[in-house]
Amino acid sequence: MGERRGGRGHEGSTVGLEKYWASDPMDVLRVRQDFLLADLDPHGKPGFEGGKTEGRKSLEIGAEILADLQEQLFAGHQMGDDPRRVLLVLQAMDTAGKGGIVKHVMSAVDPQGVQLATFKKPTKEELAHDFLWRIRKEVPEPGMIGVFDRSHYEDVLIARVRELAPPEEIERRYDAINEFEAELAASGTVIIKVMLHISMDEQRERLLKRLDRRDKHWKFNPGDIDERMLAPKYRESYQLVFDRTTTPYAPWYVIPADRKWYARLAVQHLLIDALESMKLDWPLADYDIEEQKARLATG
């Protein structure tokens, strides 16, 4: 694994383990008071001065760093009963690259230390319960990195745009989400909420590529175009989500997604930063090492 160097804090700090960033992009990507989605360029690459080739090389370097830190998180619970875990929430319009994040970022770590949950249209059983019922069942275990490919935010995004629930119910859900995430944070969960921000032009190109390639037809749904026509309403809905649910314990990050390589690199950075902030280390052996060496020498 890559050499471990000094850790770092969060706000306003310089980038530590990842030497390829020109500046830490988190101040730009993190949603703060008065944040406006319309102000963020979906084709930007905050904090990174190189192009696609440099980005891919950096992703490989970061993969080593991430794998090292993830293994320490996993080992800390296996041997030391460390209760901490990470939850990465991915939200986006169609084609923005959630699947690519899972494939190209999370594939770098040991799969036994990752819990992936993909939330589709609720089943009849799920609809019979509160909207957070199915979410709670997928919360990552201690020592794990959990990934939500879509999440509880579908219940305030789609529900608002498609008018699937009355306004007063949507309002209740914002508060319920904040309480739920506060509960997770208090139990040792580091929450990273990511919205991948793609432009309309880039989305059109990606949808056309799916139609032009036989091996991508399975990924296309005519309903994607229907959702695309509602993009202005979705942007309004996302803005409300940011206004109502970005908190110190569960911050939102909006990542420009027109460049797939940059979005992957930025999400990888958020994960590395979160794990670094835990000040992880390898757990101490609960057995006599020299004794075990002697046993092997005579065995």
Count of DSSP E strands? 5
User: CATH superfamily name?
Assistant: P-loop containing nucleotide triphosphate hydrolases
Uncertain stretches = 1-14
Mean pLDDT: 92
Oligomer: single chain
Number of domains: 1
CATH fold type: Rossmann fold
Strand order across the biggest sheet?
2-3-1-4-5
- In the CATH hierarchy, the architecture is 3-Layer(aba) Sandwich
Shape: globular
What can be said about the biggest beta sheet? 5 strands, parallel
N-to-C SSE string, H for helix and E for strand: HHEHEHHEHHEHHHEHH
Count of DSSP-assigned helices: 12
Residues in helix, %: 40-55%
- Beta content comes to 5-15%
Give the termini separation. 31 Å
Radius of gyration: 21 Å
CATH class: Alpha Beta
Secondary structural class = alpha/beta
If you had to describe this structure to a student in words, what would you say it looks like?
The protein has helices at 26-29, 52-80, 98-104, 124-127, 133-136, 154-161, 167-186, 200-212, 222-229, 231-245, 260-277, 289-298, and strands at 85-92, 114-118, 145-149, 189-197, 252-256. The protein has 299 residues and is of the alpha/beta class. It has a single domain, classed as Rossmann fold. Strands 2-3-1-4-5 form a 5-stranded parallel sheet, sandwiched between helices. The chain is globular and about 70 Å long. Mean pLDDT is 92; it is low at 1-14.
